[in-house]
Recover the amino acids of this structure.
């Protein structure tokens, strides 16, 4: 397996996991098969579509490369049929979701930097790409986005995006610093879940 | 009436019908005149704006050609003043809405193909352009989008977009195959309404 | 202070005020610190991001110039810590919000015209840029957008955008006509608040 194939495989695993989280939310809201697949598609690819529009990479990858939407659709349909089993896999899904968060943040931040977006903007784009799908999933299913309410999720992505940008300033964009950044984001997210860390809420 | 004028006329009828559906939703939610016009505008033109952003056609048609927003605004204001009569026309509106769905899917899929988007992506863009306005209408009025919950609506659009793309592969992009595709989408949608077909929902 | 610096300062004050309105909504919904900052960011910069995407100015200013997101974040965090005091400043915030509405409408309409968008489209883009952040703020916090329900808000922006476009047709794009337009929008908005003007709602 070459490096490019490995990255694509990792990317598609991230897409499948995000799609599964969207599809699960759709099943819980009693959406029909199309609705479940659509929320899965948006949860998996919405953040990347926003990223590509903002950096001027049209058509976005979700439309330019059929493997992305087909993976999202397949994962969503699988959840539709197998969702009682998916619920039993909740712990596995959370771990894979954290991995997807790390990976998508890192690759998106680098894409923004490579497209010539300045540092602060690239950090924001990296974070938005990673959390955008989850935001859209919650809006489509009538919920205030959970990642705005509690949990260390977007903060982990933002911290990782800043790290990637700093490393990029020092020319460190090889597989090792990039991989370490993704693992750090994933680790912080998992640690926050395990220790039940959460961000502060304003005094009433 | 030339072919181009005919197409534009058909397009604007689709815009007016989608605007009317948005404006009706706005009236039902007790929005004010501006709110009704705004939801009508988004319902009519939101899907096309998304399509144009994704294929890189900026500014989108909704801003580049004044006939589109003015038609949407006029239809919305008409619904605002005449909505009790519009309710009596519910059957007519559903038929026109199905015609708008067919037309918008077909023209948007072809636009994406002509912009060089690969086949799978073009099918998705064609469908998104046709359903995007309805999605936005429901989100703006605080509803989980109805087209994700039941009904054969987006599925008809997706099937039609696939048909258009296959015909395009064979070089069949003249008025006849395109027209037949639009009529098929509209027919499936109307048949589904009449027979109360719906997509499956996951077992609890 | 040069003209450009003055305009930037005015722009950033508008960003801060819109961010404060978003952050206040986030605090009221019991979002965590990240959620408050995110809703502040979207309320302040969402409209401008939409404008820049639609006119093809990528990356949007919110990502291309770090002063915009940092101002939004600083204002949001300040509201998070000081929100009881912000509530006491409610009247001041409403006045500044009206000023932000006027300024953002005028600068955005001119940007669209300068990008070659036709007149009607430029008016719509100017209005959408000014109201887009408020729309997104309400959607993120689970509300039907207030500006669709009552108040003279978007209508003031649309009227101002039309005025700017007419002046532009006559070549009047200097600081005086532009400033007068912004002041007029702000004045109409404040007068509407003071007199409790509202747009009509359809008969039931």
């Amino acid at each position: 397996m070459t490096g490019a194939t490995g990255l694509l495989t990792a990317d598609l695993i991230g897409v499948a996991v995000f799609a599964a989280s969207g599809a699960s939310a759709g099943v819980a809201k009693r959406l029909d098969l199309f609705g479940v697949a659509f929320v899965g598609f948006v949860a998996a690819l919405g953040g990347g579509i926003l990223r590509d529009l903002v950096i001027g990479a049209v058509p976005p990858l979700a439309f330019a490369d059929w493997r992305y939407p087909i993976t999202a659709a397949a994962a969503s349909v699988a959840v539709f049929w197998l969702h009682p089993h998916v619920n039993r896999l909740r712990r596995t899904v959370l771990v894979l979701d954290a991995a997807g968060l790390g990976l998508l943040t890192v690759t998106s931040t680098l894409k923004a930097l490579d497209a010539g977006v300045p540092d602060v903007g690239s950090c924001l784009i990296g974070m938005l790409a990673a959390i955008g799908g989850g935001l859209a999933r919650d809006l489509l299913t009538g919920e205030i986005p959970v990642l705005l309410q509690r949990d260390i999720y977007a903060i982990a992505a933002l911290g990782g995006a800043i790290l990637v940008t700093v490393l990029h300033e020092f020319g460190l964009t090889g597989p090792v610093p990039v991989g370490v950044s993704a693992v750090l984001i994933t680790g912080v997210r998992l640690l926050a879940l395990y220790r039940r860390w959460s961000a502060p809420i304003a005094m009433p």
